[in-house]
UniProtKB/TrEMBL annotation:
Belongs to the class I-like SAM-binding methyltransferase superfamily. RNA M5U methyltransferase family. TrmA subfamily. One of its GO terms (molecular function) is tRNA (uracil(54)-C5)-methyltransferase activity, S-adenosyl methionine-dependent. It comes from Simiduia curdlanivorans. Keywords: Methyltransferase, S-adenosyl-L-methionine, Transferase, tRNA processing. It comes from the Bacteria. GO terms for biological process: methylation. This is tRNA/tmRNA (uracil-C(5))-methyltransferase. It catalyses: uridine(341) in tmRNA + S-adenosyl-L-methionine = 5-methyluridine(341) in tmRNA + S-adenosyl-L-homocysteine + H(+); uridine(54) in tRNA + S-adenosyl-L-methionine = 5-methyluridine(54) in tRNA + S-adenosyl-L-homocysteine + H(+). Dual-specificity methyltransferase that catalyzes the formation of 5-methyluridine at position 54 (m5U54) in all tRNAs, and that of position 341 (m5U341) in tmRNA (transfer-mRNA). It is an enzyme of class 2 (transferase). Its EC number is 2.1.1.35. S-adenosyl-L-methionine binds at Q186, Y214, N219, E235, D295. The active site is at C320, E354.
């Protein structure tokens, strides 16, 4: 994100421009009317990371314009960051600059906050962290009322915990999520709530069972599980799998099984290419799958997972990359109709648009 592009007064115009580009890109697919879900024009990011620029014995937050990584821009606040991030930024910097042990060779700071007010700060150093640092960090933790992690090469010091608990309001229900430092979470909680509501809307009359690939910490699994008899979810990250299990328990979800494996591996399991010990606790034959939910990385769906998806009556596809989404939809359109298409402005003032698609078998 270029710093000068953040202008709340031009929010609608920047979104209109992105929509025009997307409609032009997807013109050959004859999309239905696009549902547009906007973001707050400021203070929408619950996560942020900053380089630390050390100069004249003082640490400063710094960002870089794209392509200008040797020219830091010193900043004091972050308009797109949550109000909690902006509240913590000056207080943290004052504390760091008042103590040489906290400041020395600090080169990066990461913030993870929630709509419910929790915050976790990670301080990353180019030096080992000792007992003196840990004692001072404990004092800082109490002063700022946050959780703190110290990191350096091959070192991670937890003062208490490495996660926050987010509480999202979706269609009249409060959903609880553990969000772990360093793991993927939706950065724009306001838009995330809208995404979950959209997914609810298009699955509330669902029948049968759901297969979900790339489930992460169960962000979509939690609300969607209430519309299906059973859910089988897969995720490759061990940390995310553990967080998902925690989130299922916290939200009273009892009809979900989760397997730690990639989508490519699961496709091999479905096709009986080879057995997987990680699926030994799951009887695949007991599922009556009617729908598949996919939220892949920017590379989109690989060819085998595309073929697997085409076996389902209903496909719910959430994409963080319109380019790979277009390629995937071009192939999926041979077997499925695009019934609904939505865009979610997760990252205002950038070229990025998150998309959601509902496909039904022809």
């Amino acid at each position: 994100m270029a710093i000068h592009q953040v202008a709340p007064e031009s929010y609608e115009q920047q979104l209109d421009h992105k929509l025009a580009l997307l409609k032009r890109q997807f013109a050959t697919l004859c999309l239905p009317e696009i549902d547009v879900y906007t973001s707050p024009s400021s203070h929408y990011r619950q996560r942020a990371e900053f380089k630390i620029w050390q100069e004249n014995g003082r640490a400063n937050y710094a960002m870089y314009e794209p392509g200008e990584y040797k020219k830091p821009y010193v900043i004091s606040d972050f308009l797109v960051g949550s109000e909690r991030i902006n509240q913590l930024m000056p207080a943290l910097l004052d504390a760091v600059n008042s103590n040489e042990t906290l400041r020395k060779r600090l080169f990066q700071v990461e913030f993870l906050t929630t709509k419910s007010g929790e915050a976790l700060i990670t301080l990353i150093y180019h030096r080992p962290l000792d007992d003196e640092w840990q004692g001072l960090a404990q004092q800082l933790k109490a002063q700022l009322k946050v959780d703190i992690i110290g990191r350096s090469r091959k070192q991670k010091l937890l003062l208490d915990r490495d996660f926050v608990i987010e509480k999202l309001q979706v269609d009249g229900s409060e959903l609880i999520y553990k969000q772990v430092e360093g793991s993927f979470t939706q950065p724009n909680a306001h838009v995330c709530e809208k995404m979950l509501s959209w997914a609810n809307k298009h699955t509330h009359n669902a029948k049968g069972d759901l297969l979900e690939l790339y489930c992460g910490n169960g962000n979509f699994t939690v609300p969607l599980s209430r519309h299906f008899s059973k859910v089988l979810a897969t995720e490759i990250s061990k940390t995310s799998v553990e967080a998902a299990k925690f989130n299922f328990a916290q939200n009273g979800i009892e009809n979900v099984e989760i397997a730690r494996m990639s989508s490519e591996e699961f496709t091999q399991a479905m096709d009986h290419v080879r057995p997987f010990r990680r699926l030994s606790h799951i009887d695949l034959s007991s599922y009556q799958f009617s729908s598949i939910f996919v939220d892949p990385p920017r590379a989109g769906l690989d060819d085998d997972t595309l073929s697997l998806s085409q076996r389902f009556d209903n496909i719910i596809y959430v994409s963080c990359n319109p380019d790979t989404l277009f390629d995937n939809l071009t192939k999926l359109s041979a077997t499925h109709l695009i019934e609904h298409f939505a865009v979610f402005d997760q990252f205002p003032y950038t070229h990025h648009l998150e998309c959601g698609v509902i496909l039904r078998r022809r």
